[in-house]
Amino acid sequence: MANKVKEAWKSGKAVVNGWLAIPNAFSAEMYAQCGWDSVTVDMQHGVQDYLSCVACFQGMQPHGVLPMVRVPWNEPGIVGKVLDAGAYGVICPMVNTEAEARALVQYAKYPPKGTRSNGPIRAGSYGSGGTYQKTANDDVLVIPMIETQTALDNLEAILDVEGIDAIYVGPSDLGLSLGMEPKLDREEPEIMKIYERLLKETDKRGIAAGLHNGTPEYANKMIKMGFKLVTILNDVGLMVNAAKSAVKIARG
Amino acid sequence: MANKVKEAWKSGKAVVNGWLAIPNAFSAEMYAQCGWDSVTVDMQHGVQDYLSCVACFQGMQPHGVLPMVRVPWNEPGIVGKVLDAGAYGVICPMVNTEAEARALVQYAKYPPKGTRSNGPIRAGSYGSGGTYQKTANDDVLVIPMIETQTALDNLEAILDVEGIDAIYVGPSDLGLSLGMEPKLDREEPEIMKIYERLLKETDKRGIAAGLHNGTPEYANKMIKMGFKLVTILNDVGLMVNAAKSAVKIARG
Amino acid sequence: MANKVKEAWKSGKAVVNGWLAIPNAFSAEMYAQCGWDSVTVDMQHGVQDYLSCVACFQGMQPHGVLPMVRVPWNEPGIVGKVLDAGAYGVICPMVNTEAEARALVQYAKYPPKGTRSNGPIRAGSYGSGGTYQKTANDDVLVIPMIETQTALDNLEAILDVEGIDAIYVGPSDLGLSLGMEPKLDREEPEIMKIYERLLKETDKRGIAAGLHNGTPEYANKMIKMGFKLVTILNDVGLMVNAAKSAVKIARG
Amino acid sequence: MANKVKEAWKSGKAVVNGWLAIPNAFSAEMYAQCGWDSVTVDMQHGVQDYLSCVACFQGMQPHGVLPMVRVPWNEPGIVGKVLDAGAYGVICPMVNTEAEARALVQYAKYPPKGTRSNGPIRAGSYGSGGTYQKTANDDVLVIPMIETQTALDNLEAILDVEGIDAIYVGPSDLGLSLGMEPKLDREEPEIMKIYERLLKETDKRGIAAGLHNGTPEYANKMIKMGFKLVTILNDVGLMVNAAKSAVKIARG
Amino acid sequence: MANKVKEAWKSGKAVVNGWLAIPNAFSAEMYAQCGWDSVTVDMQHGVQDYLSCVACFQGMQPHGVLPMVRVPWNEPGIVGKVLDAGAYGVICPMVNTEAEARALVQYAKYPPKGTRSNGPIRAGSYGSGGTYQKTANDDVLVIPMIETQTALDNLEAILDVEGIDAIYVGPSDLGLSLGMEPKLDREEPEIMKIYERLLKETDKRGIAAGLHNGTPEYANKMIKMGFKLVTILNDVGLMVNAAKSAVKIARG
Amino acid sequence: MANKVKEAWKSGKAVVNGWLAIPNAFSAEMYAQCGWDSVTVDMQHGVQDYLSCVACFQGMQPHGVLPMVRVPWNEPGIVGKVLDAGAYGVICPMVNTEAEARALVQYAKYPPKGTRSNGPIRAGSYGSGGTYQKTANDDVLVIPMIETQTALDNLEAILDVEGIDAIYVGPSDLGLSLGMEPKLDREEPEIMKIYERLLKETDKRGIAAGLHNGTPEYANKMIKMGFKLVTILNDVGLMVNAAKSAVKIARG
């Protein structure tokens, strides 16, 4: 499978990413037909586990979106399992040090670049002719989350780790870490300055910067600012907002 | 449990009803917090079966919405099972004759009004003090769908069947039956005339009329016209519309 | 697999039957180790469907209890499916006429005795050497429920239908049908008289009579009265009673 | 979605059909990549229900096989549900009379040809541009099973029912009905004569004839004889045969 | 949601806690109506994983019991996930050192007290008005298990870790660690002396002490001794005991 | 339960092991009847998680195969959970050092040999009379995988760790680690030399050597070479090969 996110980034484009918290293949397959470039199964805060991730991937597969996962933690067992399941990108929370970034890359790459174990049980069938193992080290996106003061302190060292394709910013956790309220679509100057630094440092290294957003309007603004991977809420968040609005209008 | 839909109807109010096609309790529990009066698990066209209906009911229960089901067909086995699971209303597709309406009432009521078998395994625990069986015949809403020319031909006879609390109109099937395109939010004069007849005949008998809608604006208009039970699309339809819109805005 | 219930009945013994409402294989496998002769998955009022029945059967299988099912309704599709899944007995609710009893037997027997379709996907592996189809017509118990006034009116005609191995009495539904409260462990003289008639008529024909009970003490009394198949509540009922008692004792 | 089975039949070709008894999307997606033209979820004798059928369809969808279902029984609720789920063909067991064949066609076709209700929740997304409802009556294959003496007695009347695309023969049930052993890959002259009659009568009417087979060699012979739809065992049967053979060889 | 366990402890009362090993929402919802103050999903030794925990929580929610989890191990990924799912208490096995206790507190608290990541997908909806994140650090109970000799050696250091609300004793593991048989409801003087020390040291620090029990009578005795959190077996254990007893009585 | 693998090894025999990637109890129960000595649920590269492992064990249990698990990673939480679920053998990937081997043994043994926590919720019921905990340390097989250059470098130290019953070789990962293609059934002299060393060193210590194979013919050759535990592909691999072959033959 061509990694359409990687290709978009090569040509300088931003990608719009979906986010799945509902552990259901039917929901995922309908959501995957809405225009997203990639769709990420959120195994950290979403109501997802490994088998629901597989089910969501099965629902998504016919619809041409790049399958990604946010793993619950930087741990080799689960990183290996979601890659075998067919993830073409791994977003990993709370990567705060160079060592943690190196570990993540190790878990996600086959030797000699890493220590991933061979057995791409579903991933292998995305490709053609059994070529998966030859191209996976290049195709699979490794994306640590930068979302704490510690990560900012170690930013350059993290970004210099070979094998990192992008970073992803969680604005709520970043805020909490800095003593602010946990929320999305932030406007604080302090945060804006951090975003600018992240964009500058990633851009310098040919790494994409991603951001989780609460509204499509803010996401669009962030694309213009330079972010190359934007997500808007998640499946259930969009549904709840739409339902609340529908009820109000129907009641008049 | 007080049947808040029945109470609303008694006081002349219309209710806004949710509709679940996603077979998942988490999705259902989030959706149930959006302001609906009742939420219906759609076992006919939704991706739902009996156990997913139970799961959705479990997700909905803390949030104060009346649980209802659209059964896949007018069949005693499944009517009994969803009532035992806790449905306080049964919407039944394709009720076209007086005999079919009588059968539906029979399946949904305990003796002597019907032939429902005793065993309200989840329903019993909605109540308090083991009173469920004493009040169920009054509390459970029996709602045949009027959605074919045959049903219109037999309308008065259907409505005169004792034990019917409301009717529900499926505009797509009604259209198909009349040789029109299957769609919601219809404006054809021929259909409007049918709606007027339905409202008149139901109103005369103290029966509520319900309608499936594609947009909240149309639903609001239908409340003003006299419908007492309006649904807007379903969970997945609202999510898909919201997601398509978010992608477009984010891309700018 | 030897049908140990049939063997017990041949030697004049009563069997103690378990009843599963919890749709879970782990729960079923633990429950199956408690001393029951047979365990019945209740697909009518239990929270069970076809796949949960299969799962419960899988949990029960190592533990030597005869697997039975109460089907939700007298319908050929589901009778065939639970037999294929490995049920060695089918309890069918609301069999009120000779015609309904004949239909049930038809659904449960291979030609020439009935119209069951061949394909015992799990049932076949209970046996050895592919002999299942040759013995199934003899081994599988067909057990209509007698639980309405209509059934009592037609009792002899129902019992005379060839192929019926036992009847099963639902005291709650029987009570409802007679205008009494729905409850188990009844003591009304009117009901006792009915039980005596049922025992006499079944005994005369070499048919076993079964009864659903609320307490083991009452079940024991009914065995002494002549019932050959007694059930005590179900899995969840026993658990709830035990839990309520434990909480009270712990609080002192 | 183009109905590749229908196209093959138009050009006079036979199709090789897979058969799913394992209720799992992963198993289905791997099996769907083995070269079948169509894959049928067996809800009659397979360990399948409605939601496992949906899961199998999700697993199959990216791999270009036509999704079909064998329903458990000729019943409008389940026929409607599997079509909504995306089945492009319905194989229905035990169709023994013209009336049963007419009923099946009714359940499977939208008005005015039948009484199918509108709501193709997954099926709609196989197509493009919302055209599903306009083409479904032509695209969806209606395939009654001819597997009893009664069906043979009524053969011409059944085949003359408008809307039937093919018939499917269950050799085990056919054998049982004729007083023979239930088995596949039959060689009895009596059966061969029946097959010849079926091929002659279907061919005359432009209807395809299908057959369930136990070995690929026999299936190939049947294609040569004129059958246009051949199935070989099912997923689990092929696996079990392969596993038994592997164990033997490994042991030496 | 008010933390009724915390409130009970403040007023000096003991709480009676349920324990779920059966991975099923229906079983959980029935069990939750038996009078427990809190119900703990046992993800260590119970047949539970993350999604079954969510399902159990959904079943429990309407019935007013405090939801807690025993995690399988002291690991940040799973601690975060169960808190997001709505756990208001985390019981963690095998906390043997001060460092392990500190780690547990870190995983369970938002900054600045810990490193928990923001995203309370279900937990957020227990509260009202989006206040969850502001009160979670106070509301969520952190409960390390003291069940080895090493833990006893480090007891004071563990108890001095800020943020610990209670300890929980596993008598079987404690026994194994001390070279004794693994069992509940212990009476060995050596164990009693340990319990007295635990009660003294926790009481001194305003920390509650909890204990797993085999019978309600022993649990009651332990409440009198000073334990503030007592559990009696688990769901399946109570069911099995009740079923074995019922079979015996029914057989006479 | 007698550990038939251990007994076979004691008498010098090799065992043939099955391998489950399909997360389904029905598939597992059919596969378990094919002649395997043991069947391993592959939680590393198979589409399996904890609850699907439990389901597969339930399907396997009546059929006399020793239940084993390949865990996803060397982590105490999951090792404990699969043993409680009833695994009588744990195959652990990527054990590269003596310390890792020691940790694995610790996780798998009760005190004083290790730190496994007591609570064999399903495992306990395999035995009789509550003897499980007394024999588990002897019965449960601990099997580290040797599949990297690092592991070969540390081979003697790993093998000398007390409590290791066997090793298991993953030829694909071993190849990757040595800079070769990932594949099974290897013939490279370099690999053969490694196999000879492994057989010599394990044999010397009374430890069995196991190997994953792609064909039964190669597996048989490896038994002759001295391997005592051979696996052939997995459930889905055998099915896919058989299905591809069947399609080809049917097409002619």
TrEMBL record, chains A, B, C, D, E, F:
Q: What is this protein called?
A: Aldolase/citrate lyase family protein
User: Gene3D superfamilies, alphabetically?
Assistant: Phosphoenolpyruvate-binding domains
What GO molecular function annotations does the UniProt record carry, in alphabetical order? lyase activity
Q: Which organism is it from?
A: Sabulicella glaciei
Q: What Pfam family is a match for this entry?
A: HpcH_HpaI
The keyword Metal-binding belongs to this UniProt entry's keyword annotation: yes
Family (UniProt):
Belongs to the HpcH/HpaI aldolase family.
Q: Which InterPro entries match?
A: Aldolase/citrate-lyase_domain, HpcH-HpaI_aldolase, Pyrv/PenolPyrv_kinase-like_dom, Pyrv_kinase-like_dom_sf
Q: Which UniProt keywords apply?
A: Lyase, Metal-binding
Domain HpcH/HpaI aldolase/citrate lyase stretches: 19-241
Domain of life of the organism in this record?
Bacteria
